[in-house]
TrEMBL record:
SMART domains: AAA (SM00382). Keywords: ATP-binding, Nucleotide-binding, Transport. GO terms for molecular function: ATP binding. PANTHER family: AMINO ACID IMPORT ATP-BINDING PROTEIN (PTHR43166), ARGININE TRANSPORT ATP-BINDING PROTEIN ARTM (PTHR43166:SF37). This is Amino acid ABC transporter ATP-binding protein. CDD domains: ABC_HisP_GlnQ. The keyword Transport applies. The lineage of its organism: Bacteria, Bacillati, Bacillota, Bacilli, Bacillales. SUPFAM superfamilies: P-loop containing nucleoside triphosphate hydrolases.
C-alpha cells in the first residue's frame, strides 16, 4: 500500500527527516510514536503530499511522488494520493457554518459529484458508524471536541479512502472524550482499514496497532511488528528512554 524509499526532508537548512525507508502493506495498522520534534508529523504530511520531499520516493497505491519530479506530474500524483487517502488532524477543522451532516456531505457532492439525496444517505451511514446519527442537524460548536473529531473521521471516510492517516487525533481532547474517538479508530482497524497513526496513546498503540514505528531525531530508530514486545522490552536505548518517560 505504501512504499517509502530514502525519504529526506529539509526545511531550508534544517534537516527533519533522514533517509527514511519503510513498506506498509494493505490492512496494516501502524502506530508512529516518538518524542516531540522527531519528525512524525512531517513524515505523515509527506505521505499525502502536504510536504514536498527533499529527496527520495513515496508510492501510495498506484501513485508515486519523487523529489525531482516536475510540478505538473507532481500535482497529478498528489491529486491521486489525496483521492485515496483520508487524513485526520489534531484540530478538527470542520466548517463552522455547516451542520454535521453537511460537513460530511460536502466532499460527496463537490468531489464525488453525488446527488444530494444519495450523499445524504451515505453521510447518515457514516455518522451512524461514528455514533453521531442523532447529532446530524447540529452545528460543530454545539458538539464536544470528541464528537467533532468523530465527525472529522466520518468526513474523511466519506471519500472511501484506501488509507487513513491520523496525526495525534486525541491530543486536543479532554481526557474523558478520548475513549470514544479511539473506539471509532479501533473499529476502523478491525474493519481492515490501512492506518498510520501518530499518537501519544501508548495503550491504544499497544492494543490496536500491528506495528510500532519509533522515531527520534528524524529517523526510524525502531520498527517492531510485535507491539507488546516493543512496550515490554524495546531493543534500542533511545526507545527504552522514551518508554520509561511516558510510563
Ligand atoms: P513531531 O510531529 O514529531 O513533533 P514535526 O514533524 O512536527 O515533529 O517537526 C520536526 C521538526 O521539523 C521540528 O524541528 C519542527 O520545528 C520542524 N518543522 C516542522 N514543520 C516545519 C515547517 N513548516 N517549517 C520549518 N520547520 C518545521
Ligand atoms: Mg507532530
Amino acid at each position: 500500500m505504501i512504499t517509502v524509499e530514502h525519504l529526506s526532508k529539509k526545511f531550508d537548512e534544517l534537516e527533519v527527516l533522514y533517509d527514511l525507508s519503510i513498506t506498509i502493506p494493505a490492512h496494516q495498522v501502524v502506530a508512529v510514536i516518538g518524542p516531540s520534534g522527531s519528525g512524525k508529523s512531517t513524515f505523515l504530511r509527506c505521505l499525502n503530499g502536504l510536504e514536498i520531499l527533499t529527496e527520495g520516493k513515496i508510492t501510495v497505491g498506484q501513485h508515486t511522488i519523487e523529489a525531482n519530479m516536475n510540478k505538473k506530474e507532481l500535482k497529478q500524483m498528489i491529486y491521486g494520493i489525496r483521492q485515496e487517502t483520508g487524513m485526520v488532524f489534531q484540530q478538527f477543522n470542520l466548517y463552522p457554518h455547516k451542520t454535521v451532516i453537511e460537513n460530511v456531505m460536502e466532499s460527496l457532492i463537490v468531489v464525488k459529484k453525488l446527488k444530494k439525496e444519495e450523499a445524504q444517505v451515505r453521510a447518515e451511514r457514516l455518522l451512524d458508524k461514528v455514533g453521531l446519527l442523532e447529532k446530524l442537524d447540529n452545528y460543530p460548536s454545539q458538539l464536544s471536541g470528541g464528537q467533532q473529531q468523530r465527525v472529522a473521521i466520518a468526513r474523511a471516510l466519506a471519500m472511501e479512502p484506501q488509507l487513513m492517516l491520523f496525526d495525534e487525533p486525541t491530543s486536543a481532547l479532554d481526557p474523558e472524550l478520548v475513549g470514544d474517538v479511539l473506539r471509532v479508530m479501533k473499529n476502523l482497524a478491525e474493519d481492515g482499514m490501512t492506518m498510520v497513526i501518530v499518537t501519544h496513546e501508548m495503550n491504544f498503540a499497544r492494543d490496536v496497532a500491528d506495528r510500532i514505528v519509533f522515531m527520534a531525531d528524524g529517523r526510524i530508530v525502531e520498527d517492531s511488528q510485535d507491539p507488546k514486545a516493543f512496550f515490554t522490552k524495546p531493543t534500542t536505548e533511545r526507545a527504552q528512554q522514551f518508554i520509561r518517560k511516558v510510563n
